[in-house]
Fold this sequence. Notes:
Four copies of one chain form a homotetramer.
Chain A: H1 20-30, E1 37-41, H2 47-55, E2 58-63, H3 66-79, E3 84-88, E4 100-105, H4 114-120, E5 121-131, H5 134-146, E6 150-165, E7 168-171, E8 174-176, E9 181-186
Parallel strand pairs in A: 1-2, 1-4, 2-3, 4-5
Antiparallel strand pairs in A: 5-9, 6-7, 6-9
Amino acid sequence: MFIYPKMYRKLKRGPQVILPKDIGIIIAYSGVWKESICIDAGTGSGWLAVTLARLSKHVYSYDMREEFTRIAEKNKEILGLDNVTFKTGDVTKGVDERDADIFTLDLPNAEKALPAVKKALKDDGLVVAYLPHTEQLKKFVMKLEKLGFYDVHCVECIVRDMLVRKEGVRPSTKGLWHTAYLAFARKGAKKIPPIIKTDESFK
Amino acid sequence: MFIYPKMYRKLKRGPQVILPKDIGIIIAYSGVWKESICIDAGTGSGWLAVTLARLSKHVYSYDMREEFTRIAEKNKEILGLDNVTFKTGDVTKGVDERDADIFTLDLPNAEKALPAVKKALKDDGLVVAYLPHTEQLKKFVMKLEKLGFYDVHCVECIVRDMLVRKEGVRPSTKGLWHTAYLAFARKGAKKIPPIIKTDESFK
Amino acid sequence: MFIYPKMYRKLKRGPQVILPKDIGIIIAYSGVWKESICIDAGTGSGWLAVTLARLSKHVYSYDMREEFTRIAEKNKEILGLDNVTFKTGDVTKGVDERDADIFTLDLPNAEKALPAVKKALKDDGLVVAYLPHTEQLKKFVMKLEKLGFYDVHCVECIVRDMLVRKEGVRPSTKGLWHTAYLAFARKGAKKIPPIIKTDESFK
Amino acid sequence: MFIYPKMYRKLKRGPQVILPKDIGIIIAYSGVWKESICIDAGTGSGWLAVTLARLSKHVYSYDMREEFTRIAEKNKEILGLDNVTFKTGDVTKGVDERDADIFTLDLPNAEKALPAVKKALKDDGLVVAYLPHTEQLKKFVMKLEKLGFYDVHCVECIVRDMLVRKEGVRPSTKGLWHTAYLAFARKGAKKIPPIIKTDESFK
Lengths: 203, 203, 203, 203
């Protein structure tokens, strides 16, 4: 199924996972690095949490469903990680951590977690949500604006396989068209700029 | 220009850079982590090199043009990194390092570097090339097969901005359609499987 | 601006037009042909209306704003057409025609026209709406289902320019990412099938 | 399989067909209309030929394989058309018709037909080729330039299904990523302009 990254081939997969393409954009856009403290909710199979743990200082990952935490713990063990803590709990009611650099959300009503996210992030800390539907994306962005987050930026990442053979180069016939939208924003007191600056009319 | 990641806003930009979207896919698909040794050629402005340095153990980055190395050194300084070594030199003639985990190539004739890449990578080490044109992609893949690399996988990453406003949600009107193709492969002695397995006829 | 089709280069352009790529999908998916009777609202610059007129028996095109009708009349004259009738009026209040084969909608609240569309179409007649935002698309589809239309099918058409030169083939760097979604449906009494049948989980 | 256009549901399908999305772009970009004379090669199942026949004056469609001509004849009969002529023959050796408005090519080595195409088209007549691989696209464009065609324009049309349900709007998870590239050009003596004008650096 997954050719890359190779480590995912040995991981357990319970609930639906965030795929490498979206994990890649989350990592690159968030600027996570070896000194980052990350909070993650919900854990699911823990693929995002363990990938972040391999790149950052510590990851705290929450899920309300204990059976998912168990799968994630198994994946932590498979990869030999000691810097990820799985917790069973509802992040909309608040988390224990403070001064986090990054807060990732993969929840049906991610916007409900934003007050807790705001408390947990340090100034300039980044929140990113993984949202399959456009309605979720809108609710999330409207709540971000209301709570004074800034640099709101929403994207969709599409990875297209290329078929490269002696007889010819072309994109793969079929492929994965959609997983979810990603919404990024920063905690802060600065005035919110227009949400997207890159758009222009094509008239 | 770049909203995310924030750190790039302060970096110097000389020659054309690899953008965060492609850096994200390189990171996610390569499985790079805190213990990885990376080799990078050519350095360019060093954006890929410094991003990898923030996530891995050490990065060795080569460029033939000394003026680029200088820009990259400046970016290393701005980010306060001590685990990236910039070198001026031609990687097609070989590199000093051995047992590397990852070798990234952003060169016009990346396939010419493959014999040197093969020597420098450890078994199961990963090479990834950033190739703007389809002809380059084909040459690179043909050479990979000839040299016995396996798990060859070629993709294109497209990030589409979403415009999320009270009056409506829709993709941004205009955007970036293409930067480059990414080709991934592993060094090894295993038989090469069919290059892409996910393709099916749509008849 | 437009390389193709050549005839558009000489047409007047007032309000925003439906572009050839979307006109092409409307024509191909609707099955419009030389014997078709088409109704169109709103006219705008009349590009869709005159294109349909060149391919069908007769087009009746409505717009509430008389100044647009004037631009469209000019375009009809430029192309030497005699089988398109421009009318100033509000289609949500009903149209004069009956037994139409195709009804095209480019209106802010296209769903409000659906009762009138249903009266004007013959059995098995096709309605298609051009809708820039996802919220409009949803409102339109919900109303289609309520009114008993069937074969509901929603798409987005993306045309990507390819740069083909001696030095290499690749997609164009920048381009048009979004104009509007297109929603198709048929008038009829048959039970509505699941809206999209082609989707599968990627688990 | 095909929801739209409805008429295709009853057509025979032998060899691989050109899909409605690509037929739509061919129609819209070529400016074909009720007075057009079209030449088509190779016929295949005849879907493009019969669709063009429903919109134009006459279509002459060539294929080297007689068994395909038979399927296409069947489709002509199903649709009750009298303005399409199927011929068995090799278009690279020339066609009988002259002063055609449009010449469509769906052949493995489409560039070999270009001298015959040039003879058969009227001044300003349009050629369009359907080419799955990038190598074919390049060969075709290079030959177009050599033969003095102008307004060369190459595109790829991607149609993405949208899933519109009460619980949310989002693109379909999986879909068709690639069929073929389309290359358009005009016969003429005018100087060839730069192939693509819309591209800009993203530096």
